[in-house]
Amino acid sequence: MGVSDCITTRSGTRNFYVRYHVPVTERAAVGQDEIWRSLGMADRREARRRAPAALVKIQLDVAAAVELASPRPEPTSEQVQRAAREVYRSLVEADIEERATDREAMGAFLGGEDNALRNLSYAREVREAQAKGEHHHADVDYWALHFGFHLPTGSLRYQESAQLLTLAHANAAEAAAQHDLIHDMRRFSSIYMSLEAGSKVGEISDNLEVAVNKIHRLNKPSSTYAFVMRLIFEVKAGNIQHDVAIDILGRLESFLFRRAICGIEPTGLHAVFKGMWRELTSSRGGAGYPAVTAGNFEAHIRGKPTISWPRDSEFESALRAGNLYDRKVVKYALAELEIAVQGETPQDDFHIEHILPQKPTDEWIEVFGPDWESVVHTWANLLPLTETMNPQVSRAGYAQKREAFGGSIFSTTRNFAEEFAEWNPTALQARANGIVEFALSRWP
Predict the structure, then answer these.
(1) Do 253 and 218 touch, CB atoms closer than 8 A?
(2) Which of these, 380, 360, 378, 379, lies nearest to 370 by C-alpha position?
(3) Which of the chain's ends, N or C, has fewer CB atoms near its CB within 10 Å?
(4) Is residue 355 part of a domain?
(5) 229 and 170: one domain?
(6) Which residue has the higher pLDDT, 127 or 427?
């Protein structure tokens, strides 16, 4: 019988009581079939908190009465080991039962990375105490009464029980930490799948769904998942406004995209985003999370001396001269330009065509000169196509390629064919100017 089953009320009073049914074998010594003890309050949650201590006091009284009538036997080593295993199971089952039956407590106090860390910290504290020969976590007297053992303080069996029961408490705390993390996985599963697989989160606005999907399409930056998942979870819980989350994700997208365009490795980002929520909310006050704003988010990242947020000048230089083709964000960049022109992209996956071919003919080299390799993989020289262009057409002169571009389903490709009658360094520079203007506005 769990503690919750022992709490009840009595006629004529609003206070809660602990009702203890005396085991049949102990009733003769106690002189009662059941014992009632008032907990002195009408609040059920507080009563549940006080009930274990009241129950232990009743059991101690019963045990004292029984011991006067017939002393308890000292257990064998095997019995002590069996009892310790039973204690571990009961502690784990109590944790599971609490999660299943008390939804309010589960929502407020159980589950989540923070609680897992607290449980692991407690387990470490218990193990360190045991290593020093301290066993105050073991509750030896309580469990001795529970199992009907006679354990004189200081005896060999008492010391063995203390060690094994201490380990049982540490192991149970570690099991609770695993439950916390599993609970987190369930709470965050839809958000995780939206980031990893591009599925919908659900229960959030369409604009926020779009913002989350952009993070997914931006090469699935797993280093940011811990922060993004917590942000969206708090939106769904009503603690963060949708427009605030959209603004934060927009700045996150700009930060990640600028770094990717500039070729900056993601070294150190995991540590930044893993602890960001805790750092932003460490001085929480009032309703919700007032410190979680786009401005504070950006300031937090910019305040990290080892983490670079590329300036406009760096970003522009990379947009004009950087090798976009070999960046992981190349399709995302081309798709976002298409969306800006058309409002959507007609095809999520597509082939990337080099206007100036990767293996140019002498005719192309004559147009672009000996430094053609410095521009061949830049954004201005890339277009989306539904499928790979015929190799002969791909390496053909611009007039033939332009005709093929004009029939594309992609607006950016069709518009390019209409705008540029020739493709040479001057035209490439003109297109680069337009891309820079777009990108600085799109990813400020």
Answers:
(1) yes
(2) 360
(3) N
(4) yes
(5) no
(6) 427
Q: For the chain, what percent of residues have pLDDT higher than 70?
A: 89
Cβ density class 169-198: b for 16+ within 10 Å, e for less: bbbbbbbbbebbeebbeebbebbbebbeee
256: nearest Cα among 210, 298, 209: 298
Q: How far is CA 358 from the centre of its chain?
A: 42
Nearest to 249 by CA among 213, 280, 199: 213
CB neighbours of residue 46 within 10 Å: 13
**Both tokens of residue 264?**
């900056």
Q: Does a structural domain hold residue 250? A: yes
Provide the H-helix boundaries in 102-218.
Answer: 103-109, 113-131, 140-147, 156-197, 206-217
Quick one: CA torsion of 239, 245, 246, 247, rounded to 10 degrees?
130
Q: Tokens in use for 221? A: 């930056």
Examine residue 193 and state whether it is found in any structural domain, yes or no: no
CA separation for the pair 331, 416 (Å, rounded): 17
- Tokens in use for 148? 């009907």
Q: What is the pLDDT of residue 68?
A: 63
Q: What is the DSSP string of 247-289?
A: HHHHHHHHHHHHHHHTT---TTHHHHHHTHHHHHTTT--SSS-
Q: DSSP string covering 138-165, please?
A: S-HHHHHHHHT----TTSHHHHHHHHHH
Residue 12 corresponds to which tokens in the numbers above? 């004529």
Residues ≥6 apart with Cβ < 8 Å to 229: 188, 191, 192, 195
Distance (Å, whole) CA 98 – CA 2: 10
Q: How far apart are the first and last CA of the chain?
A: 62
pLDDT in tens, 67-109: 666 666 788 988 889 988 988 888 888 777 666 554 444 443 3
CA distance 239 to 330: 35
CB 332 within 8 A of CB 360: no
Q: Cα(346)–Cα(336) distance, rounded to whole angstroms?
A: 12
The answer to the question of residue 35 being in a domain is yes
Give the global pTM.
Answer: 0.64
Q: How many domains does the chain have?
A: 4
Last-in-domain residue among 23, 47, 71: 71
Structure token digits, residue 212: 């989350």
